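re: ur question from earlier - yeah i can do the single chain one, its not a big deal. heres the input i used so u can compare w yours
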Amino acid sequence: MNRFVYKARDKSGKLVKGQVEAQDIREAAKLLREQGYVVISLSPKHASLLDLWRRVGQRVTLYDIALFTRQFSIMITAGLPITDALLIIKTQSRPALRPIVDSLLSDIEGGSSLSAALEKHPKIFSPVYIALVKAGEGGGVLDNILARLADNLEAQREFQSKVKGALIYPVIVVVGMIAVAVVMMVFVIPKMLSLFADFNAELPMPTKALMAISSFSEKYWWIVGGVIGGIVWVLMLLAKTPKGRQKVDELKLKLPILGPLQRQVILTELTRTLGLLVGAGVSLLEGLRIVSGVVGNTVVNAAITRSSTQVEQGFSLAYAFSQEAEVFPPMLYQMLAVGEETGKLDESLIKVSHVFEQESEHLVKGLTAAVEPLVMIILGIGVGFLVIAVILPIYNLTGQF
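and the output i got, formated as tokens:
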């Protein structure tokens, strides 16, 4: 929800100032008119740092959506009307989700369908979510669709938690290494090495190298920071262009260890989501179109789009995916061929998604196992170099006396 600052006059003509929360400026004006105000001015409120912090802390998470869907599914299955179910969920939801539920309730009470009400919140409910609800409404099986959707969201959340939990240790270690190195080179090492310079003694090569690096870091750290920031800024600009985004996504898939991991994560979400859509009665072409927009990688997106074109021309999905061997592994289209022959494509997709999920977990464990010794080796080399550069001059100086 967005905040808008307004000036208006009430029914008595008195000037009123305040703020109103709404999805957009039209809805804000509508709310004010419903309260009997004549709007004089209405503009978005500029977010302060405190507002940004609150917005981050109160944003709607995947956990919120999964919990909302599970509660909604249970109530619909129990026979409660949609409006009653939403009214109960509204009282139990977190503050971040409560305005969304309130908006859904208002739209449905105004005659809108559930899927149409969800479409007004594209940042909260994905195209997959909306398509499944629409299919459930059309087939009269909304309770079953919501139950399967809740299962899918909970599985997706659990999978993401496993990946993030396994990666957080290496990330913290690497960030800590960089922070310690910066503090040592800029603040600690210069003071220690200045003592050696006062003796005017011949310093060993490691000490000279460390002094040169430390001196450069102390004097020109802002240049290094500016260059790194400039490179990141240029890469971000390039990533916003179609060709640049494609190159970045290609590079992501080719990175050692991280590339295969990202590929497996994408394939896990792709097969799980497509299986859910097909099982809910969504056509295969429509399912491919929806999935192509949510995979988050232009390389995989282009492969799905080309496969969709071949399926539209009459080819099987297994054959279409087999023509994209650089993106889709043989196991995927082999399993799809079995599913298409038996008429259980959705079950095959769900099963193969479990396989990809397990492979992703193994890759994450392998990444963690590979990072730990690598970090220890780098730490050992760095600490050894510092010890040699600092201790060796001390031995040389004591030998002169």
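The chain has 16 helices and three strands. not sure if urs matches, ping me
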